[in-house]
Amino acid sequence: MNVWFTLPNRDPAKLELIDIAGRRVIRQEVGSLGPGPHAVTLGATPRLRSGLYFLRLTQGARMLKARVVLMR
Q1: Which of 31, 39, 51, 71 could form a disulfide bond with 12, CB atoms 3.0-4.6 angstroms apart?
Q2: Which residues are CB-neighbours of 30 under 8 A, at least 6 positions away?
Q3: Is pLDDT of 22 > 90?
Q4: DSSP percent split of the chain into helix, strand, coil, nearest 5
């Protein structure tokens, strides 16, 4: 799964993928990438099943959320 996002600064940040039951499936620190646009591959985890997930990017008090549908 490829994720594109932009960080405003170098503060600690994390990406989380959450399944429909509310369980965190993936957590990846991304703040060390620094400010600017980035592309990250989330895939160093057990094989994900097809379905609806929620992607959350958190940096300080900022949080962005997106719905993701994974189809295989």
Answers
A1: 31
A2: 5, 7, 13, 14, 15, 38, 40, 57
A3: yes
A4: 5, 60, 35
- Cα atoms in the Cβ-side hemisphere of radius 13 Å centred on 6: 3
- The answer to whether 59 touches 11, Cβ cutoff 8 Å, is yes
* DSSP states along 7-22: ESSSS-EEEEEEETTS
pTM of the predicted protein model: 0.85
Amino acid at 28: Q
Q: Are 20 and 51 in contact (CB under 8 A)?
A: yes
What's the rounded Cα separation, in Å, for the pair 19 and 41? 17
